[in-house]
Amino acid sequence: MTFESFSFYLFSTILVGSALSVIFSRNPVHAALSLVLAFFTAAAIWLMLEAEFLAISLILVYVGAVMVLFLFVVMMLDININRMREGYWNYLLPAIVVSGIFLAELIVLISGRMVFEKPLEISAQITNEGNTLQLGRLLYTEYLYAFELAAVILLVAIVAAIALTLRRRKDMKVVSSSDQSSANRASRLKIVSMPVENGREREES
Questions:
Q1: b vs e for 36-70, b when ≥16 Cβ sit within 10 Å of the residue's Cβ?
Q2: Per residue in 50-73, pLDDT tens?
Q3: What DSSP character marks residue 169?
Q4: pLDDT band at 168 (very low <50, low <70, confident <90, very high)
Q5: Inter-CA distances, 136 with 34, 48, 106, 145, 146, Å
Q6: Nearest-CA neighbor of 44 among 7, 95, 3, 87?
Q7: 108-156 pLDDT, tens digit each
Q8: What does the domain layout of the chain look like in residue ranges?
């Protein structure tokens, strides 16, 4: 067994184990951390396949952004774990049905390609360029319109998410930058003359 084969089987075993931990873990924080481990091992497998861009994007986007957001949300929510355990086995049958359908689709897809399609004749040019440069050239030349359409859809989704969460409340304190910049000493400090109490007057006298 070569070192590449050993590394592949090692990363695959860790990936499958972390994925099972995500499914069967009762603690949501442990499940999120197991998913982070699964993403890291999947990125290592992408690196073995010489797909550096996919590996780095998987770590930066999913581990660096999505999973951090998941952890913040899970830790901020008051989740009753004992209550979650009560109805855990109620979802076993739907999970088995969905997993069986998904597995059947994968088997049909893979077997159909192996039976009905001819082997692909790959004529790759050996160059010194990395796959990241080649992928960028394809995105901005051949698939430019699809790339711009995806960017517009993401922009609309960001604006819609901000519009949905932006709700003004009556008890919310609004800070005006113009009022802050135009403030002076007279408006910030006010000296009030207060009468002396009767008790102090007697003590002083």
A1: bbbbbbbbbbbeeeebeebbeebbeebbeeebeeb
A2: 888 888 888 888 888 888 888 777
A3: -
A4: low
A5: 32, 21, 30, 14, 13
A6: 7
A7: 888 876 665 555 444 445 456 667 788 888 888 888 898 899 999 989 9
A8: 1-80, 129-165
Cα–Cα distance measured from residue 150 to residue 198, given in angstroms and rounded to the nearest whole number = 76
**Dist. CA 160–CA 138, nearest whole Å:** 30
Query: Which class in CATH covers the domain with range 1-80?
Result: mainly alpha
Burial, 12: exposed, middle or buried (Cβ in 10 Å; 0-12, 13-18, 19+)?
middle
In this structure, the chain runs to a length of: 205
Q: CB count, 10 Å around CB of 7?
A: 14
The amino acid that residue 21 corresponds to is: S
Could you tell me what percent of the chain has a pLDDT over 70? 77
Q: What is the dihedral of CA 49, 50, 51, 53, to 10 degrees?
A: 150
C-beta neighbour count of 118 within 10 angstroms:
5
**C-alpha 166: how far from chain center:** 21
| Per-residue confidence (pLDDT) for residue 189, from 0 to 100 | 74
Q: Place 86 in a pLDDT band, splitting at 50, 70 and 90.
A: low
What CA–CA distances, in Å, run from 145 to 133, 135, 141, 149? Answer: 19, 15, 9, 6
**By the 8 A CB rule, do 70 and 86 touch?**
no
